[in-house]
Every structure is written in C-alpha cells, then in structure tokens.
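INTERNAL AUDIT FORM
Audit reference: QA-55
Scope: verify that the stored structure record matches its stored sequence.
Auditor: D.O.
Record contents follow.
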Amino acid sequence: MPLCAPFNLARRKATEMPGPAIVARRAVACILVLSILASPSLAIYCDEDDCYDLLGVSQTANASEIKKAYYKLSLKHHPDKNPDPESKKKFVKIANAYEILKDEATREQYDYAIAHPEEVLLFPFKYMTQILF
C-alpha cells in the first residue's frame, strides 16, 4: 500500500484494520512528505539573487554574451584559483545561473517567472520539475 494512500477504513473488516501505531506513523510520514513537497520555494532558480545580475548581463543579452560573462566570472571565482570560501559559494551561484540562462527554454521560463512571481508561488511544482528533471 502506498505511503499516503487514503485510509479507506470503511471498506475494511475489523480484522484487516491496521493498528493505531501504523496509522499514526503513516499519517505523520504523509504529512511530512506533503509539507516538504508543497511548501512554495523562493529558491527555485537562483536563490534570492537574479541570474542576470549574478552574471552581470542584461535581460536582452544573447547566448554568446552570457557564455562570455560566465567564463570570465568562473575563472575569477573558481575554487582552484581563489581559496576564499565566499568565492566558492559565488562560483556555485554563477554556475547555477549559467545553467538556467544558457538553455533557451529554461531562460524563457525564468523570464516568465520573474514577470509573474505569483504564479511561481501558486504552482511551484510546474517550475521545480522542469529545473530538477
């Protein structure tokens, strides 16, 4: 039986009923899973930062300008070249921003999400699944 399956106790016989401990465990697990998945995330794309600002380009920048800015910043902040711990965090953010902006389809979704933030908060699964999978 799936973890968050409906507890259809009316159709079960008294001998088939799960014990109260099992029901409680399943309910708690179901609530935890759903709360983690359903909480709207503000960090779907580039955390609280703007991907364009991280790379230092405008929204009208073309693919070659984005790539050039990424290579320049990644060389500056790469952990092998810059031992500062803050620089490593910046490098990860820059790489994430580039991954989003280099792909035209993902970039269009990101631009739409910037223009319509209320939709991202109402339907976070639409944006998370396309970024994560």
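Auditor finding: record pair retrieved intact. The mean pLDDT is 75.
Action required: none
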